[in-house]
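Re: your question from the hallway

Yes, I did run it. Sequences:
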Amino acid sequence: MLASKLYAPTLREVPSDADVVSQQLMLRAGFMRKVANGLYSFLPLGWRSIKKIEAIIREEMDRSGAQEVMMPILQPADIWKESGRWNAYGAEMMRINDRHDVEYCLGPTHEEMITTLVKNEINSYRQLPVNLYQIQSKFRDERRPRYGLMRSREFIMKDGYSFDIDDAAADVSYKTMYDAYSRIFTRCGLTFRPVEADSGAIGGSNTHEFMAIAEAGEADIIHCSACDYAANIEIGKPGIMKQVEEDLKELEVVDTPQASTIEAVAEMLNLPLEKTIKAVVYAIEDKVILAMVRGDHDVNEVAVQHAVNGSVEPEMATPEQLEKVGLTAGFISPVGLKQTDDFAIVVDESVMETYNVCGGANKADAHYININPKRDFNTEDIIVAPIRLITKDDVCPECHSPLEYSKGIEVGQVFKLGTKYSESLQATYLDQNGRPNAMVMGCYGIGVSRTLAAAIEQYHDENGIIWPRAIAPFEVVIVPINAKDEALMSTSTTIYDTLLNDKVDVLLDDRKDRAGVKFKDADLIGYPLRITVSKNTLESNEVEIRIRKTGEAINCPIGEVSGKVQELLSQL
Amino acid sequence: MLASKLYAPTLREVPSDADVVSQQLMLRAGFMRKVANGLYSFLPLGWRSIKKIEAIIREEMDRSGAQEVMMPILQPADIWKESGRWNAYGAEMMRINDRHDVEYCLGPTHEEMITTLVKNEINSYRQLPVNLYQIQSKFRDERRPRYGLMRSREFIMKDGYSFDIDDAAADVSYKTMYDAYSRIFTRCGLTFRPVEADSGAIGGSNTHEFMAIAEAGEADIIHCSACDYAANIEIGKPGIMKQVEEDLKELEVVDTPQASTIEAVAEMLNLPLEKTIKAVVYAIEDKVILAMVRGDHDVNEVAVQHAVNGSVEPEMATPEQLEKVGLTAGFISPVGLKQTDDFAIVVDESVMETYNVCGGANKADAHYININPKRDFNTEDIIVAPIRLITKDDVCPECHSPLEYSKGIEVGQVFKLGTKYSESLQATYLDQNGRPNAMVMGCYGIGVSRTLAAAIEQYHDENGIIWPRAIAPFEVVIVPINAKDEALMSTSTTIYDTLLNDKVDVLLDDRKDRAGVKFKDADLIGYPLRITVSKNTLESNEVEIRIRKTGEAINCPIGEVSGKVQELLSQL
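Structure:
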């Protein structure tokens, strides 16, 4: 392709509302444009990269035995009502009525639809397993769309679904997809990590998120410095932190005027945070839940939900809810409190191992000191559970080595769904004995547009994007430093034709702009290799090949350019 | 691919609500499934064919200099209000509000969005021309979805848009797309015809529809038996049919009780239809329009709209509207009528060339005989225009040869839009003199899913589909007549590997079903070539290659299969 024909308007200025690097660079480099809040158009460069990601996904999905289909974006409300998710999905699901006032949604995911499709066609164990996928625009009406493609409202997703005869077979499908995903993200050039994750609202029993490691990520990951253990901190299992045993001092109330945070109390009383305990009050529907962790720990809301068998994620309790169960915000501890049908107390395991700690006195402007949970909490009124978030100070739950912490962008997720949807939508098959069984399902998603953004978050510098070769819009750009010079253009064109002929994805920057402008654009757009054709090197019948990633520049005889380019590309 | 792994459930029964052959066959052969009224899921076979059509489109669009982009499906209402189409589009446009009650539509087409995109980036004549396209699901809430993929509510469309400096340049873009479309449909194997068409609601000055010729088509096409002339009958220019001149007889009223159709009158008075004139009364908004054609002709509503410079398509007048302007339904002619601001009379040119004809007497149960329009119509009160539909009895407007009539499925359309959208959305560029000009636009659509349906309408027999090679889901199926026979399977696998290696798109039917079942499925699904591996031919080291299209079967030595297959495919 010729740059003079390419529709790739670059911007000098960083758009003011672009809040992450990938978004800024995609706008500046002419990869995409914003249409409205959370809605983007891909321009030719961005779309070329997306298509390369899609091609890699298709190859690896097909290779693993999955088959591509295409279901409608418009989904009848009926099937969502049958599965129970029409109401559960909330405001994030975009809903629309047709001219006859029949209700539909714009698919945020397709479990209901694929289950409905398959249940009418598959009757026998002989027809299983089946694994079907599609690559399609999905819709989620985010409360706060942000971070460009990472949290947009319309986004490209690969969603796949497997159907098996039983758990063991479903585990095989799960593993096949796990492996395919590993190959896909490896081929895309991402630095990623599969991490254990929470199965959340989608239901299911086993799940891994594929996390692209990047500062801009919204997910918190803990991983082992020695073994393969990695988990979303929501699911990371913290150990029990024991404190050095002390003599139990007498419980005492002290005045702590206005000190309604544990940090303020600790400062006021000159205590280290680990010698305090912290209360956070949640509500799940009408039930109020008091969660207690050590002052230096944080509450894991997912663990709180599990501890009380909550059907939905906990939300922070309102002042009205606190008042209803008699709690004094900022000054709460389990001492003297009783659980009821409307009120549960969940205490983290490590809290139970503290001695002589400080916590709320359950009245305004006062705290207890010398709380000893094993002595002072009524065990019949509390649930003891691991409800704190795992931290870097914990050790690996598998091999006890030190842990490390990263931020991650969730680019893929594999789920073992079990029979949640096949039961609610009656997707059964007859087994070898002619008895009906619910199919065991898995579902597998890849954020295609998000993968593009994640790659940029990982690979950029102050001058622009540094594309992994496999998903670069072009692998090579040829820059004649003066497009009006016939000798330079003639050499450039010869190299261009040779590379095209050798199946290299190459752009010839034939624009009549100054060399500086073209170099800046090449760095900004981030082609893996730049071939500079200038009078200097042409004298010795050479051109310069520059590697975007390392900045290294090599002079190469014109006749050997194609071989050298292919050699360099294979190393990128 | 192995048939035992392929998700392609075939049906024995023709689904009762499938109203055209393509829909029936796609359902029976396992290419797609119905989700809801006008909504379909593509199964793997159908999706393979769609992807082949898309690949052909991409190749030809890219070759013609167009560049692929991807705009959101969700479109802000604002830009449609700016262009004036938010209201004009009516119930066919699907509208949706987001969680903040901001209005959007699901894109039925993207003129507004692409114009908005381009206008912010292109400032100078130096940046033009630009031609951008996308392949995407589109949404139109049809009043009556029908004919499967031919009139569905969510469908796959290639939509493209060109921007030029002036009319002459836009004509070049138009011609480039016209040629690309011709290549695309030729490569897809369709029998098609580009026909002149009406530009309709989208606006614009020049347009061709690409019609796949098929009985199931909804469009009426007239084309010349000798030259290239072809037109949608809505736009076909009828000549003036002259009648043999007669002495003008005296106007006379005759009783025609209950004869309120021209056919009834002709029968009652024993007149040939061409000796009668027929009234059809329309309304465009509040204006009533009396259209008169010969009794043996039909009214062209598009021509009526043009004749009165109507802004929208005419609708049939209501009884109230007729009464308001004093017309007596069933007994109307222009004789004695006067035009007003609310009432226009449009008379077809051929009506003016009739003698002593019969028409309504403008009172109930009575007709005039011996109307002579040139004598009896007040020329100041009528508009004379070519408002009849062209018929097979006309001659070619270009070369005067006989015309032929076909039904067509509109699979593509090229439009010269002019400046309708660039003016309403202010998409201007600065010309060489620094003066702002509106860009001259074109838009170009291909119904991708409809192309698939059209191919099946054209190529099928009582046993199933007969795919053109380029868009068949697989080019070749290998059928070992007994999959449990190791010798047959071994030969089949060898041939399969050889063909795969030679880049032939081949399916191996390794299912353990009876040969008859596999043959029936092969015919139904419509693979262009079937290789039968049986003991009979294996004795002489041969297999049978059968051509689906002709039914011809050839025995071929096993070592020569790949060469023969490629030779046969190249002829299909």
